[in-house]
Amino acid sequence: MKAPASKLPDVGTTIFTVISRRAEELGAVNLGQGFPDYPVDPRLIELVTAAMQAGFNQYAPMAGLPALQQRIATDVQRRHGISVDAGSEVTIAVGATEAIFSAILALVGQGDEVIVFDPAYDSYDPAVRLAGARCVHVPLQPPLFRFDWDRVRAALTPRTRMIIVNSPQNPSCTVMSPSDLQELARLAEERDLIVLSDEVYEHLVYDGAVHCSVLSDPALAARSLAMFSFGKSLHATGLRVGYCIAPAALTTELRRVHQFNTFTIATALQHAVAAYLGEKPGVFAELAPFFTAKRRLLTEGLAGSVLRVLPSQGTYFTLVDYSASQMLGALDDMEAARVLLENVGVAAIPLTPFYREPVPHRLLRLCFAKQDATLARAGERLRALR
Ligand code: PMP
Ligand code: GLN
Predict the structure, then answer these.
(1) Sign of torsion, CA 139 141 143 146?
(2) C or N: which end of the chain has fewer Cβ atoms within 10 Å?
(3) Which ligand 2 atom sits nearest the alpha carbon of residue 200?
(4) Same structural domain, 240 and 371
(5) Is 0.90 surpassed by the pTM of this model?
(6) How far apart are CA 163 and CA 201, in angstroms?
């Protein structure tokens, strides 16, 4: 057979997978791909086992297990003060990835345009293209990555249907301000746009910053799909349980795709997560202090090194500027990441793959969701960098 015509000819394996694979081959310290290298809470494991033993091994309801949908709705009510209907507005998905993919496929189509902010998480653009639509990439300039709303307005056309935001933002490690959220709300209202808000790092904000959720603004919530991930909030990226909160009309469309994309999510996992949240209602509040300590360890480990740490406002990543390094300073970030991995033994993620048009910078992303010992080992190696 002839090679099939590719629908995504320019898409290779993701930078996360490429770097992790190489890090493993080289035995490097992997601060690249975002995943914890410490164990999950043993209680969660017990609850998964118990759920399977109790016989929860057949299809769950298509939209999610009611007990889990209800836990999520209660949590949102408590934190954002808005009432969410568990049955018609909460959909459990295979991680945020599936929720994002299904939502895009369901809501944009041929000829539509979708605004994304670069550096944009890598799953948005391919999903938009598979839906037959086109991304309009609005770049955020390092090192501050501030929104320029005039530039966003200039990028809008009559075909703009959706705007995708991500706060806390991966990989810039910045958070949206309340005034950005207002601007977004105003713009979406004026132009009747759907907002897809990727909030998987909602709990991971630092130094007193607050997470500005689209759910905190009722008018904005009425036109938004907000995406979340228990992979992040329960330190278990392999759990693959995420969810979308959206008004019933948007949820109906999302589910039209979700039911044929994945149909349902592992029943025992949904039971276990619902039970776990019931037992540990304070678990999300522990995340910011937990990761603040990790962020401090990494930052202190890099004190005296040639790397300058940019203060991370959110996510479990931080950016480092390597322009003062003799070894790396002249290299672009793709090359710098390669040399750092091969010569220093530390894996980091470059930002270039997240930009449509590369912008000049000397930044790499490091993940601090790692054991203290891993962060110490990385610090040791990075302090030796010249
Ligand atoms: N959005 C962003 C910004 C992410 O960083 C990630 C995962 N790293 C996802 C979505 C996907 O989340 P999940 O692992 O739940 O599919
Ligand atoms: N989101 C994770 C990161 O930013 C990686 C997820 C993936 O490998 N697709 O590192």
Answers:
(1) negative
(2) N
(3) 1
(4) no
(5) yes
(6) 18
